[in-house]
Amino acid sequence: MQFAILSLALGAFAIGTSEFAAMGLLPWYARDLGITEPEAGHVVSAYALGVVVGAPLTSILGARLPRRRYLAGLIGAYGVLNVLAAVLPGYGMLVGMRFLAGLPHGGFLGVAMLMAAQALPHEQRAKGVTQIMLGLTVANIIGVPFAGLLGQNLGWRWGFALPGALAILSAVLVLRYAPRVGVDPDARPLQELRALGNPNVILTLLVGAIGSGGLFAVYAYLSAAMLATSEPPGWAVPLALSVFGVGATLGSVISARLTIRFGIFRTAFWFMVFMCAVQLSSSLAVGSWALMVGSALLLGLGTGVVVPLQTRLMDVAGQAQSMAAAMNHAAFNAANALGPWAAGLALSAGLGWHSSGVVGMGLSVAGIVALGVAWRFRR
């Protein structure tokens, strides 16, 4: 099973590299395609919307497929679409391919985390989630900065081609090492949609979609803000992307331990309070590339909120575990669409690069309110 988890984690690594490299490379493809930074932010939002659409769709279509082939097919398609985003010309094609690349994202990561979690005792499920999450977070330490260096030196298209190739390799390894589990004879694809009618599921998804939006409001424009407001050395932007990954890795490990020890709601609450403070400090850091690198580390720590929310969904989803697991990533990417969009409105209104942190703080506060509603409904 360990090789299976490693092959799935490689797929998560490819997804993490592609998703976050699109934000780090934003200034370069904006310049190359002759568009503004807020317009380039639509490339990020298009991918996120693809995840939102694709999560329920792939869950329904894959409910009666063997998990090994289902996962290999999703990550293989992801790789091909990233390669197409790298080679096809024009802004419209880039937006379109990024939307399509988002479609397999939630289904793959959701079922991969579910497979890893179910391989462990019930009380240790958060560790299984973290094993796959580490593929995402390590991508931000190694994959995203390397993609950024490729983008600066060889052209931004290499930043999409690299994760595309890794995703295709992951598909081959998943077919080789993932357990050959048969089709669930009791699977009812359309019944997976019932999870979306469960108030506990919906409220948990709303917490992630709104609260995590603050993180992306800041991170999506971090590279552009650093280049526009300071004079960083050439290695500063890749360093910021890398320390974000270090923070995300630490955040996932810490969050898993806190969730096991203190419970889901308490852990999620403190992570969201922490994010609120981080977004405020990120706004104050604009203009100093060194402080902005430090804020990237703190932003990464905040991604640990995904772990308690994923664990909560496992508790309340009933028989629709695949749908709920995929929708958690859809919620996280809804935040990835909401945050850059809201921050882009502030930037287009001429409020300055500081405004992305203020927008982020507002979204984090809204996420805390949503978490309180979810807690009250559970009680």
Tell me what the structure shows:
Helix 6 runs antiparallel to helix 7, helix 9 runs antiparallel to helix 16 and helix 12 (264-285) packs antiparallel against helix 14. With 379 residues, this protein is mainly alpha-helical. The chain has helices at 2-24, 26-33, 37-61, 67-87, 91-118, 125-153, 158-177, 199-211, 213-219, 222-229, 236-262, 264-285, 289-302, 306-316, 321-348, 355-378. It has one domain: MFS general substrate transporter like domains (Growth Hormone, Chain: A, Up-down Bundle).
Descriptive terms for the model:
single chain, mainly alpha, 379 residues, 16 helices
Task: Produce a short descriptive summary.
With 379 residues, the chain is mainly alpha-helical. The protein has 16 helices and no strands.
The overall pLDDT average reads 82
Strand/helix succession: HHHHHHHHHHHHHHHH
User: What is the third-level CATH name, the topology?
Assistant: Growth Hormone, Chain: A
- Classify the secondary structure makeup into a structural class: mainly alpha
